[in-house]
Design brief:
By secondary structure, the protein is mainly α. It has 10 helices and no strands.
Amino acid sequence: MSTEGVEANRAPWVRRVALGHVGLRLGIILSLLFLLIGFVSITWTPYPLDRINLSEQLQNPSLLHWLGTDHLGRDLVSMVMKGTLASFIVAAIAVVIGMLFGVPPGLAAAAWGRRADRAASHAGDFLSLFPALVVAILIATAFGPGALSAMIAIGIVNIGVFARVTGSSAAMLWKANYVAAARLAGLSAWEAAKRHLLPAISPVILVQALRQLAFGVLSEAALSYVGVGIQPPGTSLGLMLREAQSFMLVEPLPVLVPGIAIALIALALNLAAEGLGKLIDTPLARLGADRVAG
């Protein structure tokens, strides 16, 4: 093949990797910015969240209140800072739940053969049949609404996702030469999967974790909006939407501010996930996978 042909074949991948770098950097920068805003709220906000001043309700942005105030006269900047932290915490714990209870079954399914893989896949599909909202309502009925109910509900949905992703990724590498060598050396199927497959598929799991983190932020907002997520006196971006909806026609900012924050956080996390995914999915990675599987 001529040099021009090689360059022509490589060009789409080069462009894809370049776009991956741009998306990854932009996504990481935006995500870290929102994380910083959330963590700063632990020690400082412009105004206390419990500062209610009805004489300042529904004010427009000003030097005193940069994004205005809500229907109780609370500062929207302070509310968004605290709400961002709460949304991230719920989404992150839900991702941890999904990984803890989804990754091991996925690995085990790949190690123990096609039947186990099918069983794990069917179990993941079954869990995915129940949206987080339905699960949260059931949990809230039993234990009451709150952050814990939202974490468990979103986490249950995540379990199925991580089980399927882990199982399918690990199954593709199960016949690799280095796994076969580990089995011949006396390692059990589980030990071989844990020592060799898990590190190999960890980038794929990381990409999925970023996607599920974005999903968790959106789900937390939806759950709090319908009343089964975080409850007052706590706050979250979804709860801010719920509390402000009655005043939207009078003053739209208390709705727009948390809504835009939710959209930007989800966009940032998805950009980071897609960018990382494009960097992982390169010709070199595919060639390496073909060689170890050969």
